[in-house]
Amino acid sequence: MIIMNRFLFYLFLFTLSLISLPVLASAPVIQAKAAVLMDMKTGQVVWERNSRDPLPPASTTKVLTAILAYDMGNTNKLCAVSPKAASVGEASIHLKAGEKILLGDLLKGALICSGNDACVAIAENVSGSESLFVQWMNLKAKILGAGSSEFVNTNGLPAKDHYVTAYDLALISRYAMQNPQFSAVVGSRYQTIGQGTSKRYLKSTNKLLWQYPGCIGIKTGTTVSAGPCLVSAGERGEKKFLSVVLNSPDRFGDSSKLLDYGLEDFSSRTLFHRGDLIRTVPVINGMKKTVAVIISQDETVVLPKQQTKVPQTEIFIQEQLAAPVQKGQSLGHIDVLDNNRGLLSRINIVADESIPERLTLWEKLKRLCQLVI
User: Fold this and answer.
1) Helices (DSSP H) in the chain: which residue ranges?
2) Pick the CATH number of 34-267 from 3.40.50.970, 3.30.70.100, 3.40.630.30, 3.40.710.10
3) Annotated active-site positions, please?
4) Which fold has domain 273-351?
5) How do residues 101-110 score in pLDDT, each as one tens digit?
6) Does the annotation place 288 within a ligand binding site?
7) DSSP secondary structure string for all residues of 15-49
8) What is the DSSP string of 92-138?
């Protein structure tokens, strides 16, 4: 009887422990060869598969083409279509050599119905040639941190040494979506461009704009070598997530699962507020002996809703300083780590005030003389 009672007691404790454990959300099961899910506000990656592997991007290339043109060009500029641009095949908005069309309309044609001809016309009218524009594309990618990708054309047609990683494409797309003109276009189901006999009616290739509540863009891509690809973004309330899937037999289904995972199972948590005191640091030869080290800005991370454990942090800070110290001077950083000690976020920590150098009377007189002379 005692043994049975003990057994029932331990069974009760085991059952209670199961009830009290948080049930973590299941990671999405998708078919894409490479994929990444990124929080659009922080840039934090919450899920990935082979996200650093180089793969052909197909027409998702046009995200970079378009945002570079929005940054460098004038959407009201009337552009001339060259014979080269008009001759580009496959996906097309059927431009004619010698036609005049606004740069803004070319961008709509490239982004909404994936016009390859529009991309060449954009490049030629913004930079003078497609080859120079491609150089700008690669430079822009590196500036955005997307240095593991390489572009040799503006539209993503198959070419040797033209590749992206899912992570790089997410970085580029997150940046692009911060541009109001770009985000308005990729969030459109339909657009009309041109005038009179040159008027064209465009329909988006992104089916998620119809199928997924809260979809706000952004770009499809398909070639034989790349397979079906999709960059997509969704929002619910204040949450915004961006998904990239490369070479997926079910790009819209995979993207929906990833967006659901982010929007339903993650929430933002503020770990630090601007001005939070970290510690004080000794100042050598200063008018004050120490300076306060504070957080430079509010810091938010995205965590699973069920996670109650506060993320680990590691502080890297200068042990002492030599005067003078400037207010806002960077004195180190704090790394926020996930459960596997992967980097979630890096926070800059700065001096809270300026600390002038302590000078002797002789040093003061010497500096005064130098100013006079």
Assistant:
1) 2-20, 62-72, 83-86, 103-112, 116-127, 130-143, 166-177, 180-186, 208-211, 251-265, 361-372
2) 3.40.710.10
3) 59, 62, 114
4) Peptidoglycan synthesis regulatory factor (PBP3), Domain 2 (2.60.410)
5) 999 999 999 9
6) no
7) HHHHHHS--PPPPP----SEEEEEETTT--EEEEE
8) -----TT-EEEHHHHHHHHHHS--HHHHHHHHHHHHSSHHHHHHHHH
Q: What is the reported pTM? A: 0.84
3-state helix, strand, coil in the chain (%, to 5): 35, 30, 35
In the chain, where does the domain assigned CATH 2.60.410.10 lie? 273-351
- Do residues 163 and 229 touch, judged by C-beta distance below 8 A? no
- The pLDDT tens digits of the residues spanning 314-343 come to 999 999 999 999 999 999 999 999 888 888
| pLDDT tens digits, 133-151 | 999 999 999 999 999 999 9
The answer to whether 139 and 127 are in contact (CB under 8 A) is no
Chain length of the chain: 373
pLDDT tens-place string over residues 83-97: 999 999 889 999 999
Q: What is the DSSP letter of 225?
A: T
H-type alpha helices, 144-232: 166-177, 180-186, 208-211
Distance (Å, whole) CA 273 – CA 278:
11
Residues of the chain with CATH 3.40.710.10: 34-267
Q: Encoding tokens for residue 344?
A: 């979630």
First to last CA, the chain: 101
